[in-house]
Amino acid sequence: MLCHDFIKKIKNREIDIASHTEKIIDECKEINKEYNYFNTISAELALEQAKEIKKQLKNKDSKIKNKKLLGVAVSVKDSICVKNVETTAGSKILRGYKPLFDAFAIQKVKEEGGIIIGKTSQDEFGFGGFSANVGIGFKIPKNPFDIERSCGGSSGGAAGLSQKLDNHIALGESTGGSIAEPASFCGVYGLCPTYGRVSRNGLIDFSNSMDKIGPMGKTIDDVALMMDVIAGYDKNDSTSLNVKKENFESFLNKPIKGMKIGIIKEAFAEGVDREVEKNVYNGIYELEEEGAKTEEISLELPIKYGIATYYMIATSEASTNLAKLCGMRYGATEKLENSFNEYFTKVRSSNFGDEAKRRIILGTFARMSGFRDAFYLKAAKVRTLMINEYKKAFKKFDALASPTVPILPPKFSEIKKLTPLQHYLTDVMTVSPNVAGLPHINIPVGFEKNLPIGMLLIADHLQEGKLIQLGSAIEKGK
Ligand code: GLN
Q: Do β-strands 73-77 and 168-174 pair in parallel, antiparallel, or remain unpaired?
């Protein structure tokens, strides 16, 4: 059932919100036993919210009628702050941290009657593409189609749960592809908005110039609905865009006749699984059938330099952000003896996972005096060139198409054998739109070997509407 229809039933009191929420929480606990999609299930908060909604419905409270998310279960990636609910970003160093405030996006969800069911599992701080880099003591989420395989990452728990749980929308986070990529591996929609479209206030920072919060869900309608709730200007985020509020749902079912899609030539080159390619082309043919025009386009920079540029910027910013985590207030159990330096070394050595340490080392190196110009600043310049190349393409095209990930969801046993560089290379399709701050979406387009395949569509800044329009055309064609 679309969340839209579910909300109607809640409003008419055809479904009792309190008992429904109880059922959902039980279902989440059950799912979690096998799949590890949650770091925390916020049963108490969810049931309290449901009770309050029930009361307001009973009293025929006039405010309740217009609530956009009334009764819908909303899961939240663990890097997004929810008041009084443990928020760890998947890291041992943040164990026990209960924010005193709600992130901007969470405030909006609560205002619209969404029910917060818990915090979903992820790579530690978002550092990964398979959700296998979880922090020390955390569990790795498993693919809903094959538990020996990865959900993708870093919003892996959010993606898997979106596939498994109905009447639910997830909030994920993307810095370099962490919404689209896991959505692709789990066969759901994932929309990463334009940088600045959704406030970062209350999002635990990974790489400030690229972090974005966005919706994931089983249908494009649910994703559009959530965008309508969370998008908007926030004076508490200096990078929030003060632009006109869109009506994202109005793009659903809008004809796509005459829209122009550029097929990124380099994205179908060597290294792309042929089964992935075939299914992405099926998605492209569907767009053509609905009246879109397609043409190949060569985009050199994004595929050639995207990975290097992204990992330079991302690790540099991450290494400064992680510098503040010292274990003094939460997280660490180590005792403060001897000097602060010794204490911090002890805390950080035993509470950060391997990938976090690797990124601190890489990022600190890239920012060191003498190297800064050669690495970090150079990457910033390449970023501008990439944006220019995309902008040129968007003069001609409404959206650009590629696979979301070049491979099918791998087995955990295969992931273990990858070097860090091979691991980074699987992000080749998604890092560049993230570096450029461009909105992009994963659209499920098919299955091979019972595993889902996704197509990535990228649009110009603030053109999320077009992505919803195109996604909805494909969904309708299915
Ligand atoms: N896989 C990318 C990385 O490891 C992207 C992560 C993200 O978007 N949070 O950095």
A: parallel
Domain ranges of the chain: 1-478
Say how far apart CA 468 and CA 475 lie, in whole Å: 10
**Whole-angstrom distance between the N-terminal and C-terminal Cα of the chain?**
16
Residue 1 Cα to ligand 1 middle (Å): 31
Query: 419-433: b or e for each residue (b if 16 or more CB lie within 10 Å)?
Result: eeeebbebbbbbbbb
Alpha carbon of residue 317 to chain centroid: 19
Write out pLDDT tens, residues 106-153: 999 999 999 999 999 999 999 999 999 999 999 999 999 999 999 999
Distance in angstroms (rounded) separating the CA atoms of residues 122 and 196: 22
> Which amino acid would we find at residue 451?
L
Q: Do residues 228 and 214 lie in contact, with contact meaning Cβ atoms separated by under 8 Å? A: no
Instruction: Determine whether the shortest distance from the Cβ of 42 to ligand 1 is under 6 A.
Output: no
Considering only CA atoms, which of 44, 45, 75, 317 is closest in space to residue 215? 75
Ligand 1 atom nearest 177 alpha carbon: 8
Beta bridge partners of 411: 149
Which residue's alpha carbon is at the smallest distance from atom 4 of ligand 1?
128
* Residue among 211, 154, 210, 208 nearest 185 (CA): 154
Give the catalytic positions in this structure. Answer: 77, 154, 178
pTM of the model: 0.98
Nearest CA to ligand 1 atom 10: 127
154 lines ligand 1 (CB under 6 A): yes
**CA 277 to each of CA 80, 288, 298, 430: distance values in angstroms, whole numbers, following the listed order:** 34, 16, 17, 16
Ligand 1: distance of its center to the CA of 134 in Å?
Answer: 13
Tokens standing for residue 416: 């273990």
Q: Between 287 and 370, whose confidence is greater?
A: 287
Looking from the CA of residue 181, the nearest atom of ligand 1 is 1
Residue 68 CA, ligand 1 centroid: distance in Å: 31
Q: Does domain 1-478 have CATH number 3.90.1300.10?
A: yes
Instruction: Give 245's pLDDT tier (boundaries 50, 70, 90).
Output: confident
Residue 281, helix vs strand vs coil: helix
Summarize pLDDT for 264-307 with one digit per residue, the tens: 999 998 889 999 999 999 999 999 999 999 999 999 999 999 99
